[in-house]
Design the sequence.
């Protein structure tokens, strides 16, 4: 199935194959990518440039094993706010942005307002983060925390795996 990017160009199976390779290792040489997807180096470069220019490729990064740098645990926190006006939502979002341990935060539908993924060193570190940072944010009515016991699957896109 082909998809159309912001510039009206079609993302085809070659583009998705290139993206899969870059998702696995963004340092893969163009020659290897071309060989793997059956295209010339120039054609691969042009496709990567088009996907970058369109915003489909937003950047290149490294994958970090959080446990290797001291963050042994992941906590999922669900939060309900007292108010849902734009000012409260914006203030809450800004406060979360200032907490480095917050990896992801989603405004969600359902019983809670936010779903937050947090990296911590251990349970004491999480207790400190709750007391010193999260619970200092005005407007939190209720929260529910769950420690991740094991990650069964982790992907940034449906193209991996």
Sequence:
């Amino acid at each position: 199935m082909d998809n159309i990017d912001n510039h009206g160009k079609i993302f085809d199976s070659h583009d998705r194959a290139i993206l899969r390779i870059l998702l696995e290792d963004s340092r893969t040489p163009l020659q290897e990518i071309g060989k793997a997807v059956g295209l010339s180096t120039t054609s691969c470069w042009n496709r990567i440039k088009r996907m970058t220019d369109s915003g489909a490729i937003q950047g290149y990064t490294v994958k970090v094993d959080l446990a290797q740098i001291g963050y042994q645990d992941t906590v999922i926190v669900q939060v309900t706010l007292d108010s849902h006006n734009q000012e409260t939502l914006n203030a809450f979002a800004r406060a979360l942005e200032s907490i480095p341990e917050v990896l992801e935060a989603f405004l969600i539908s359902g019983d809670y307002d936010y779903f937050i993924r947090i990296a911590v060193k251990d349970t004491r570190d999480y207790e400190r983060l709750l007391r010193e940072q999260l619970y200092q944010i005005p407007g939190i009515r209720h929260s529910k925390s769950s420690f991740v016991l094991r990650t069964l699957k982790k992907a940034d896109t449906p193209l991996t795996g």
